[in-house]
Specification:
Elements: H1 39-42, H2 61-79, H3 86-111, H4 113-132, H5 136-139, H6 144-150, H7 155-166, H8 170-188, H9 193-199, H10 205-216, H11 220-229
Helix pairs in contact: 2-3, 4-8, 8-10, 8-11, 9-10
């Protein structure tokens, strides 16, 4: 199951010139249909409308049947005689469909633990290699978008996945790996704070010091001194 926002495109590809055999349903809702309803605003909280095309919600047979039931209700209401309640009833069914999808979406993170943890392992290796590479001097700190592209998943999906696994979003993981590398250099080298900041991709050492203190409650110099005293 996948979701599309207005303006997004999709296509179905099949190989060997075989006759496509597709089953399922496609529900198209014009944005104007939602105006003056609570769903017009609430729909923005469902992050999977922002996902790239290489992610989908995998459903069990029971979950599939739940959604089929909702679609049948919408179809029945749509083909019935329209009255003053029709829009509200259909919107209510849409809200139910989205809430169930959210439940199944969160369940997916729990049931696909092996593949999810593989993503986490790949992320950790990616960040480790990034901060070990001298190329960081020219590239600067890795962005969330860069990390997601390297892992071949969308930034939104990656953030949701990491939040479910670790309680932290992608940017927080980047900062954690950065602080880990900073602590290593502060405790094992004689490089100045400015040199370390530059090696970690910061244009200004003040920005590095501010982030370091925010994460550790110590300035880089205080961390170095406390380590030395130990």
């Amino acid at each position: 199951m996948f979701f599309l926002a207005p303006g997004q495109l999709f296509s179905i590809q099949h190989s060997n010139n075989a006759t496509p055999q597709h089953t399922g349903w496609l529900l198209l809702i014009h944005p104007d249909f939602l105006w003056h309803t609570p769903l017009a605003i609430a729909i923005k909280k469902y992050a999977y409308f922002d996902y790239a095309v290489n992610e989908a919600l995998f459903l069990s047979e029971k979950e599939e049947e739940v959604l089929h039931g909702i679609i049948r209700n919408i179809r029945h209401e749509y083909h019935a005689n329209l009255d003053q309640f029709s829009q509200h009833i259909i919107v209510s069914q849409l809200e139910t469909l989205l809430k169930y999808s959210e439940r199944f979406y969160q369940r997916q993170f729990l049931t696909r633990k092996i593949s999810n943890h593989q993503v986490l392992d790949r992320l950790n290796r990616l960040l480790q290699e990034y901060f070990e590479d001298d190329a960081i001097l020219g590239k600067g700190l890795p962005s969330v978008q860069y990390v997601a592209e390297q892992l071949n998943i969308s930034a939104s999906y990656l953030g949701s996945l990491l939040k479910s696994l670790t309680g932290m979003h992608t940017q927080q993981h980047i900062h954690e790996k950065l602080i880990e590398k900073a602590k290593e250099q502060l405790s094992t080298s004689s490089l100045s704070i400015s040199e370390i900041a530059y090696r970690l991709g910061f244009e200004h050492s003040q920005s590095f010091s501010k982030l370091f203190k925010n994460k550790t409650h110590l300035t880089p110099q205080e961390f170095r001194q406390s380590f030395t005293h130990d």
